[in-house]
Amino acid sequence: MTRLIRQYRSEGVVEAAAYRRRRFPVKYTEADIAALAEVDRTHEWLSGPATRYILKREYEEFGKAKYERLAGIPVTHLHNVRGSARYRKMAGKWEVTRPARWGSENGGSRNRKDGRDSCGWIRCIKGIGKE
What we know:
This protein is mostly helical.
């Protein structure tokens, strides 16, 4: 309280100072994350070590400069980047939800455990109330 009174007397106004959180410096840019997302979409989301090997080969053997920083990424940090919101926006794989079909043609019959053909646990396949 004393500090705020002193600030008001000296400046005539009391303003809240903007909060600045301490952060680690950003090592991987938006372009790096986009390149990682492209590699994951192309190779259908391989494991961390396999993806790291691909990134390393892209830079060292094929000389692609956009993979320079990603070539030495640790696998643990690769998983951290994959969990970030920026990566998920770029690498998102969106599919339309398709309705499920019930019945034996899909291999998913919901009949009773004792094997009698009647109503199943969740819904009847053969017909409601049909014995």
